[in-house]
Amino acid sequence: MSLPWPPQVLPQTPPLAPKVAGPLPISPRFFRRISNDERVVVGLDPDGTPNSVRVRQTLVMKRLGDYVFAIAAPVKTVFPGPGTESPPGQRTNQILWQGFSPGIRKLSVIANLRVDESAPMLPVKVRVEKSGARSVVVIENVTRVTAKSYTANVEPVGLGQVVGRIRNAIRRNYTAEGLNVEARGPQRPVDVHVAAPLFVSGTVQGGAGSRRFSAVVDGVERTELRVFVPGPGPPTISMRVRTVDVSDRVRPTQSVRDQLANTIDLELSYARKRQYDQFLSAADPTGHTSTTYIYRTAPRPVTAAPIESGGSSSRDTMGWIALAVLLAAALPVAAVVWARS
After folding, report:
1. Which residues, in sequence order, are CB contacts of 260 under 8 Å at separation 6+?
2. Domain range spanning residue 258?
3. Alpha helices of the chain — where are they, by DSSP H?
4. Is 61 in the same domain as 202?
């Protein structure tokens, strides 16, 4: 009997999946042993509403060979990241990579994402509330979900081996595999609460100075952190969020059923943590991965103003179009004259 399988009992996101996936230009080809590191920068309105989401993703390949793959994401624009050894491509809802790895190869991209699709998948929600005459910044861990699980009597030695495999995967920051136990008797289905525990730290600036904060918000027993704003006026927020280690979830107990419950909690919490360790999909979802989330108060991005039609602007545009048509017609004639000269 296997432990609850995370892809079946946990949500499929994150990593992000756009509402409509773009077509793959060619058949994907890649290999394991690709590490993934991400930095997600979230711009906030004064009330805590996200107004921009930008991701810097760095992939490091550690084997020789060709690679072709796409990272599905709700991307608006894509740019080469720092130190990349190959430029990224972009199609609808995809970041494209293609090339050859000589053994070690670094791929880095900076992607601006559509806020309406990416912000709901962030691990933390920020809001500003009034508390009497003061304002308070509420930082909420929103990674909690309810998952299908079970309780049963199992063979304790095999269960201990499973715990060892999970802890070994945690140490290596890889996925945990081979998690099977021997049941002794019937099993009863139960629902469990699962979240990615987060460490949040930063500052809140108000009219009377700044206040620093740091805390672990596990998402189950503690779901939010409240920070009072020093002084009047809208706060300025600067905060860093990362997942934290879950290896201490299994504690000595008297009951084998309790040991099984703790083991399942460890397995699912680690799987949920790894989901938020790859906000964008990693090329190798089983490999080493980590993500840091940066939240900070920032003005909304300015969108380009549309070109007005009519009047002199319209006449100027038509003039440029006419000139382009004349140049296009003249090019073949010029080419013939040049060839005969």
Report:
1. 151, 152, 154, 159, 181
2. 6-297
3. 6-9, 115-118, 156-172, 256-276, 311-340
4. yes
Is the same domain home to 180 and 318? no
Residue located via tokens 């809802």: 93
> Which residue matches tokens 């040991």?
259
> What is the spatial distance between Cα 245 and Cα 223, in angstroms, rounded to a whole number?
17
- Average pLDDT score over the chain: 85
Strands 89-91 and 94-102: antiparallel
What single letter denotes the amino acid at residue 304?
Answer: A
In terms of domains, do 42 and 138 share one? yes
CA-based end-to-end distance of the chain = 83
pLDDT digits (tens, 9 = 90+) for 141-154: 999 999 999 999 88
Q: How far apart are CA 83 and CA 243, in angstroms?
A: 26
Domain count, the chain: 2
Task: Tell me which of 87 and 340 has the higher pLDDT.
Answer: 87
Contact present, 111 and 95 (Cβ < 8 Å): yes
Q: What CA–CA distance (Å, rounded) separates 291 from 274?
A: 9
Q: Are residues 34 and 96 in the same domain?
A: yes
For residue 112, the one-letter residue type is N
Angle between helical axes of 156-172 and 256-276 (0-180°, round to 10): 20
Q: Indicate the pTM of the whole model.
A: 0.84
